[in-house]
């Protein structure tokens, strides 16, 4: 009995789709396209959750908008372009690597290469620097050390 309860609990703990029955399209092909498009759109309230999994009102509005555009005959790209024009590129879970985003895509690896180069230069210079301990103390430093130790 305990195992049955545990199994049911695990099944119910699976992430539920937030799409309500009144949002589902009658045409299975259009509904499949809508689901595929929805997987790539970010819920602007929940941030890192797609609109298909979000229960937020805005996500519901976006799901309805996607389905309306598909019913009107838009292609998948036209639907995405429409949503991006209306809400900005932040609505995409996988932003494009063009325009201003290209700077963001390149900045991380570029900073890693620069930091690696600086680290390499530092290590090489440090290895070729004279050893301060091997040079010993100057006569002035030895006298100062004796004075400190005598006090």
TrEMBL record:
GO terms for biological process: cytochrome complex assembly. Residues 7-149 form the CcmH/CycL/Ccl2/NrfF N-terminal domain. CDD domains: CcmH_N. One of its GO terms (molecular function) is metal ion binding. The chain crosses the membrane at residues 102-123. Belongs to the CcmH/CycL/Ccl2/NrfF family. Possible subunit of a heme lyase. This is Cytochrome c-type biogenesis protein. It comes from Tropicimonas sediminicola.
